[in-house]
Amino acid sequence: MKRMAVLFAVLALSGLVAAEAQDLSADGDAGYRQVTLEWSMAGGEVEGTVFEVWTNASNAFDLELATLHSTVMVGPTEGLAQPPLGAWYDDCSANGPTGTAEPVHRHPNGTAVVPLGTTDIRCVLTGMPPGEEVAIAVRTVLPDGQASLSEVVLSTSSGEDDLVGALPTSPYLFAIGSIVLSLIALLAGLRWLDARDGRTSSRSAHLFIAPALIALAVLTFYPVLYGMWLALTDADQSRLGEQAFIGFGNFVEVVRTSGFLRVTAFTLVWSVVNVTAHIVVGLMLAMALNSSSLKGRGAYRTVLLLPWAVPSYISVLVWRGMFEPAGIINDLLGTELNLLADPAGARLAVILVNIWLGIPFMMMSISGALQALPQDMYEAAEMDGAGPWTQFTNLTLPNLRSALVPLSLLGFIWTFNMFNVIYLMTDGGPNLDFDGPGSTDILITYVYDVAFRDGAYGVAAAWSVVIFLMLVAFSWTYMQRTNATEAVA
Amino acid sequence: MPKQTWLALALAALVLLPGCITEEDALAPGEEGVVQLSVWHSFAAESKEEAAFRAHIAAFEAANPGVEVDVTGVPFAEADRQFMIAAQGGEAPDLVRLSSDQLGKIGDVRVSGQPLLEDLRPHLTPNERSSYDVRALHAMRYEGALLGLPASQDCLSLLYNPLLFDTAGVGYPDASWTHEDLLQAAMDLTAGDVQGLAMPVKDAYWWFGFQAGFGGALFDANGTPTLDSNGSAEAMRWVVGLEQVHGVVLQGTQSESMKTQFLSSKAAMIVDGPWNWATYEAGRIPVQQTLLPTVGIDGDRIAPLVTYKGWSVAKQSEEKVWATKLALHLSSAEVQRTFALETYTLPTHVEVYDDPAVVEDPVLSGFLEQLMVGTPAPTTRGMALVYDPLVSAFENVYAGTMEAEEALRRADEALEADLAEAAA
What we know:
The structure holds two protein chains of two kinds. Chain A has helices at 2-19, 170-196, 205-230, 249-256, 260-290, 297-309, 312-323, 328-333, 343-371, 376-383, 388-416, 419-425, 443-453, 457-482, 484-488; strands spanning 22-27, 35-40, 50-56, 67-74, 92-95, 101-103, 105-106, 112-114, 120-125, 133-141, 147-149, 153-156.
């Protein structure tokens, strides 16, 4: 009887001892905040046995103060997923009777499951405090609730964090500094030439020009040159900082873009119609306000300046609301128009809004030029019998030419790149083209989409260079045809 | 040497000198022992969510005296873009709130070969991970990396104003409704300046659920786009027809204007998420919720897209351990419980699912029931790119320039082309 009791006790104890995790070893060189833990089982574990990994941020392990890190369960693995190493949130593998290490199976709730007969388990413990010693133990819990604790091992996660280095700004600062230094040298050289040739009155001129020129160099010349270089690379959001030179490939893509001609044509129509309306209406209003017989000129001028005074952001959003099907325009007209949903309607709407926004500036600029015109020539013309229309065409317009030419040129350039009206009114839509600009996109709004929605920085830079060249070509031709520089001189 | 020359040389030196200063030199050292974290949130300004969020930030600071948290609010729709721009300039915050359908786009971005978001897998213990709904956690993974901790989830459902139903003598919607019942009720409720239903018929996010209900799917099991799958065109026609054929949706309704309509009792039903519930209650609308209907008596239920909002750690963060702790705190059971009960934000913490207060709340339990029949939005490159082609498809169908089948076929082709280009 006594022998039977001893035998029974030995058998019971041997089951417990065999199911306990043994031979723990930990390696802290497993990666940032990771420690590899291995343990073995002598065999005898039963289904439902759970191995609990506990950690304690101290070299003295205390289960009361320890934190449950993870669990591995012994059980059937049929039907359970077995993600390969690297595919799950952490890596755990188990050696079976054959000795081959295989990834553990995963219960739908994420618990690692190993089959009966597993001899060794190896897990990468994640979430370890970096650089701090941690005490680790494995508690074996049998299905009947009996539990035993393994030996304690200490480990420190020594893996380094993969810190992102600071983006290099020195090359850019040196480039800007070099441009500025070159300009200073140029101005100094020109000043020396003036002094040598006896042009002493212009000695200070170079000094006065210097600040503006340096500011332009930093804020305009350098970004333009950088953009031109970017246009020759394959820069995009997936390889920023690692772009490679590809020549004119981006420009080819620009020309081949579906809708390239359409968006360019609309941009030209948009610019010409707006500038024409701004000048014609602005001139008419300026002449009306310039009339001395008009009562309440101050009040009219104030009211007509409001579109310019109110931030365009707010004005455009208000206009957008008014153009909505439930907006006030349909209420007043008694219609059910949905202009912004129709390509032609949306184009009409954005053009009308931009005309409304741009008239005050033209009106005030032309008004200033009108007031500078000598009145005696009108008196003389009136004495000669010239009527109002004759005076306007033969006196007013020719004398305003020196103001109208640069105004129209500036107006064209500004309108050509008028981003906010299109963006806020329609965001370039309605977009009926699956792979190209929207119905109301102008070149600059489409470039924004290419750069910041598609992340194609190189292509967007190429588009910007194309826009720049268009405007340079137009400006040069316009100034040549109108003799603008001669008029200014 | 003339004075001006000395002046010019001094100016040149001043301009060139910054180029000699490295990034490490330029950074001002923080107060010793104090950890400074910067957090970007995307809650609406002065909303209940923002108030709750700031209270929990203060609690975190109180519990961790050596940590200071600087909070900045960014518009939700712009959060991903602003984060990418800041990160590309080396100015990313330590922690940012993002949506799971934004991760696919950010996940592809590289600066000098480095991603913008930290893979949180090494930072979490399995026990910490097990706190979250498996679907929610999985939704925050992109190409294997865990890019955020899920703190909330949401989807569309059917909300209604019972007063308008009473006035029109129409029975309230319930889970037994079919899509035809919904249309008939909307038609019965549309009278005068009251519309039966408010929803933006051109917005793909609202259409996704109907596409699933009509038997379609965005992607197949391999992630290949199937925008023109069976039922998709029918779903598109049905949704657009709500406005253009039946007139139960106000012409030109958009996601912001539909809220105004429902708030001013000009719409009897609205397809909306839980995020506006508190606003409707504050506007004294006795809003109720029920499941979106099935398509036909024996058909599939309209399954809205389920998206998840979570906290992501920037790869550039120099305080990743603390940023992760803060992310764990902001997505903890306690914080999620507060958000759920105070702002109707649906939780992702398994402990909160079973919380009696949550279970007994009709709003939360109703939306949780809707979530269970929803479709989790895949966090894939395709999901990040799907919206642009669908915008064009809807615009064409709405404008009558294309049939739905053709529009979706073109959209599918465009998406496949975009995916091929992204993979190249």
